[in-house]
């Protein structure tokens, strides 16, 4: 029982990586209709940036703040430079652009920082905490807490602020939004910036666990895509919950199902998605569109 | 004082010329109709003003040349536009749709949102009743009401309304046109109204322009146009003779 | 063999202000004249085949034939993928895996069971059809992006599965089969012979597919992709059509994979990774996802562009620079030709035929 | 892939069937998240001619259409020429002879007008995938027959000059006519028209009314339309059903309906005088 509890908790821990990347993917999808395959490598770049700063003697938290700001700018810049030319194109064209970004950015990261994996020390120290009978490292707990706060802040931003409302409006019906004096281009860039920031939080805060390398986010990206599918691309809450569910499911499966191993661990999330989508095609939290025919 | 002035405005979509040198003016606080058949250029004229189609010529708003401006910049000058096909945010609630409208208003009017919202609810009670509902769940006609309400809440100086009668029950259309008239007086709101149904429009507006093939072919006060059978016959159809079946 | 559609009738922007050209007749747009088109293509193909067969090794080396064979097999797979991307309005991130399944089916049948390669290729096609139908079933409930991400699963799972099932697949070392030789008496080298075979298969497959898309099925798919409600209102069974087209698309990909195996002779798990699936999508978009000529252009792009970029930089970072340039090339094509490179061909053709403006005809219709 | 088999394709009926309504709706109800969109609606649509449904915005008119064409599953019974539609999917209902147009004209934007109209004949052609792939004589014959019929429908709508135009390039008013031509090519028994006259002027609406009457006669199909143009409705409809708040207020001949006090209060207002 304690063992199971332990596995669930540590699954939740990794689930937060997928949850935040999935949220980032959702934000971009809602804004520009693009499934951003480059979201993971953008977070990797943020992690490398933090590693550079910290290994040059900067305090971790200060570095985090700077990296988040830089990631925001970088995300918005990517939208302005690379996405703007294809704004309003088909999802297929958008997807190909983000694939090109993935290929290009991954190479650029490797050119700047090299292929060798690097280590980033945990800002939470090496201690561990007991939670209801399960033992969690301070890193696991701290990282989860930071991501949780980020997700809540992002949710509150969209739910309660007028800027958030404007961004949602611009995402949904750009033509109408313009007629209501909303600068749609700026909103989309903001959306990408915000998504990059959310992804950067995950990249930096989990870097001590994942290790810093060009491929550090690869499998997380795939799980995040799966999570976004599970939650329904339209639902931000769904993406987050989807990420957590997949984190737990993957962890439990590799522990309790014989023969899964790390190479086939990805079976589990997709099996989960498969089942869920067969029952609820719109995803866990997606709404069947209520738009009239 | 002239609020809106179009001089020699030409516009084209995908190589198809829709406006061939449009000239018209709207004075502050005036209600003006654009009449004419399908494809005469009414919608394009409204779009030329709000910056949602690229134009040649000159569009002056309160003396300022806004030709070629992005739509959101024109909107900031106090131009509201109820587009053809409603353009509601279907996944947002009715309330959120209205809030977005109110956010578009000038800063000095921000304090009056509550009263104005009450006025809008008075006009369209269904919007209060459904305020938590997704806009997409409304019927076609209800969405049209929402689009008009949203634009009004922006407290524009110039409101462009494209075919308010589209998909609306006759009683509702009459009610909307009357309400626009009242608001126009209370809020110093100028209205440019594109409408197929000339009789209905001429009953409420001050003046009207008759368009054909992207040009103005006749204009005058509502009373003049109501009397002018030549114009009626040539461009608007003899609607007074609409007889009981 | 371009996509079977009547070209868009839009006046070139340069003619924006000109008066509408005068009408001459009210004829329907020409019906696709199948007989003539087919004759053209057959003749063109025959010429190419003849030239290729006559070309001495000094003109086209065996390696170049090898490369061309890769292009053709990729082109077939992309053509199959186009059914989904360009017509069904959905996406498959798993066509690389289906390609791999086709390759392995042929490899196993030929290497372990002594099946003649033409039969093995046919078996690959059938296996692809079956797997495609099974994968397409979820499409009954899912659409668009969701389907794409389900197919992502097989793209990710196939390589580790191929490694694990070593009793069947030979594990990490894969399966190797002997060279495919030309029938005795024909003066072709093995790569030349394969080139001929591949080219004929490409022509036949594209001919069949474009026939299918030109008529009833194409309209039904277009309708379903633009609005499922509208399609159903015209009696189109959207679910069944989606499954059928997914199965056909998968069968074509598997067929292409089988031919690819005959070309490379060795199939290993890491030949068919997620990256391959992504490359196929990129190829489809670069070429133009509604065009079979585009499929060939796209295939050439994904085969030649990354490889031709090596050798300019120091070896250590060569791979990375290659990646950067590839990404840049991809972006540039998309920015400048959002409808794919095949759009260039179409544009040139349209410019030759002067068309009356919509406006003039609208006025006629209105009056 | 062949189309599902369907009942007799023609809209024509013999004399005994003429008595039978083409569409019979019994006690139809549907609820969306607590909102009763239709509430025990029952009425018959007589075979032939034009029947209209009118009512204030949000009365449930489009919902009624969606129930008939199977997009929504309501409670109650709907019969097409005596055959129950219960449990039939939208495409099966279309194959049985229910065609429709949409409030916002829905076309395949990137296809030609001709191809759009030919889509209407989907249920009237049989050749499957393989015959089409190899261009079998049958598939080619079907295609060319469908082409001819589509051309006729386009001619009827005055759209023939635009047959090769891209649907997306058409002005709004013509898009409705393309939809109508597309519906006709299906040789339906019943055509549901959702606000066919929206956005056209009073005069045009009257011309359109004559077009509709002519169509109903020539095609043998029954037209059921939702419309706000009272002038149009009064001119073409044999019978009118009035909905308000999801309930059937009154159903009957135009002369009866236009004098009904409940209709005047809920819907027509001063428009009844025109």
TrEMBL record, chain A:
<keyword id="KW-1133">Transmembrane helix</keyword>
<keyword id="KW-0029">Amino-acid transport</keyword>
<feature type="transmembrane region" description="Helical">
    <location>
        <begin position="260"/>
        <end position="279"/>
    </location>
</feature>
<dbReference type="GO" id="GO:0022857">
    <property type="term" value="F:transmembrane transporter activity"/>
</dbReference>
<dbReference type="Pfam" id="PF02653">
    <property type="entry name" value="BPD_transp_2"/>
</dbReference>
<feature type="transmembrane region" description="Helical">
    <location>
        <begin position="237"/>
        <end position="254"/>
    </location>
</feature>
<feature type="transmembrane region" description="Helical">
    <location>
        <begin position="187"/>
        <end position="206"/>
    </location>
</feature>
<dbReference type="GO" id="GO:0006865">
    <property type="term" value="P:amino acid transport"/>
</dbReference>
<feature type="transmembrane region" description="Helical">
    <location>
        <begin position="90"/>
        <end position="113"/>
    </location>
</feature>
<dbReference type="InterPro" id="IPR001851">
    <property type="entry name" value="ABC_transp_permease"/>
</dbReference>
<dbReference type="GO" id="GO:0005886">
    <property type="term" value="C:plasma membrane"/>
</dbReference>
<comment type="similarity">
    <text>Belongs to the binding-protein-dependent transport system permease family. LivHM subfamily.</text>
</comment>
UniProtKB/TrEMBL annotation, chain B:
<dbReference type="InterPro" id="IPR052156">
    <property type="entry name" value="BCAA_Transport_ATP-bd_LivF"/>
</dbReference>
<keyword id="KW-0547">Nucleotide-binding</keyword>
<dbReference type="InterPro" id="IPR003439">
    <property type="entry name" value="ABC_transporter-like_ATP-bd"/>
</dbReference>
<dbReference type="Pfam" id="PF12399">
    <property type="entry name" value="BCA_ABC_TP_C"/>
</dbReference>
<dbReference type="InterPro" id="IPR003593">
    <property type="entry name" value="AAA+_ATPase"/>
</dbReference>
<comment type="similarity">
    <text>Belongs to the ABC transporter superfamily.</text>
</comment>
<feature type="domain" description="ABC transporter">
    <location>
        <begin position="4"/>
        <end position="238"/>
    </location>
</feature>
<dbReference type="GO" id="GO:0015807">
    <property type="term" value="P:L-amino acid transport"/>
</dbReference>
<dbReference type="GO" id="GO:0016887">
    <property type="term" value="F:ATP hydrolysis activity"/>
</dbReference>
<dbReference type="GO" id="GO:0005524">
    <property type="term" value="F:ATP binding"/>
</dbReference>
<keyword id="KW-0813">Transport</keyword>
<protein>
    <submittedName>
        <fullName>Amino acid/amide ABC transporter ATP-binding protein 2 (HAAT family)</fullName>
    </submittedName>
</protein>
TrEMBL record, chain C:
<feature type="transmembrane region" description="Helical">
    <location>
        <begin position="144"/>
        <end position="162"/>
    </location>
</feature>
<keyword id="KW-0812">Transmembrane</keyword>
<feature type="transmembrane region" description="Helical">
    <location>
        <begin position="274"/>
        <end position="304"/>
    </location>
</feature>
<keyword id="KW-1133">Transmembrane helix</keyword>
<keyword id="KW-0472">Membrane</keyword>
<feature type="transmembrane region" description="Helical">
    <location>
        <begin position="115"/>
        <end position="137"/>
    </location>
</feature>
<feature type="transmembrane region" description="Helical">
    <location>
        <begin position="193"/>
        <end position="213"/>
    </location>
</feature>
<dbReference type="Pfam" id="PF02653">
    <property type="entry name" value="BPD_transp_2"/>
</dbReference>
<protein>
    <submittedName>
        <fullName>Amino acid/amide ABC transporter membrane protein 2 (HAAT family)</fullName>
    </submittedName>
</protein>
<feature type="transmembrane region" description="Helical">
    <location>
        <begin position="324"/>
        <end position="345"/>
    </location>
</feature>
<feature type="transmembrane region" description="Helical">
    <location>
        <begin position="39"/>
        <end position="59"/>
    </location>
</feature>
<dbReference type="GO" id="GO:0015658">
    <property type="term" value="F:branched-chain amino acid transmembrane transporter activity"/>
</dbReference>
TrEMBL record, chain D:
<keyword id="KW-0813">Transport</keyword>
<keyword id="KW-0547">Nucleotide-binding</keyword>
<dbReference type="InterPro" id="IPR003439">
    <property type="entry name" value="ABC_transporter-like_ATP-bd"/>
</dbReference>
<dbReference type="InterPro" id="IPR003593">
    <property type="entry name" value="AAA+_ATPase"/>
</dbReference>
<dbReference type="Pfam" id="PF12399">
    <property type="entry name" value="BCA_ABC_TP_C"/>
</dbReference>
<dbReference type="InterPro" id="IPR027417">
    <property type="entry name" value="P-loop_NTPase"/>
</dbReference>
<dbReference type="GO" id="GO:0005886">
    <property type="term" value="C:plasma membrane"/>
</dbReference>
<dbReference type="GO" id="GO:0016887">
    <property type="term" value="F:ATP hydrolysis activity"/>
</dbReference>
<protein>
    <submittedName>
        <fullName>Branched-chain amino acid transport system ATP-binding protein</fullName>
    </submittedName>
</protein>
<feature type="domain" description="ABC transporter">
    <location>
        <begin position="23"/>
        <end position="270"/>
    </location>
</feature>
<dbReference type="InterPro" id="IPR051120">
    <property type="entry name" value="ABC_AA/LPS_Transport"/>
</dbReference>
<dbReference type="GO" id="GO:0005524">
    <property type="term" value="F:ATP binding"/>
</dbReference>
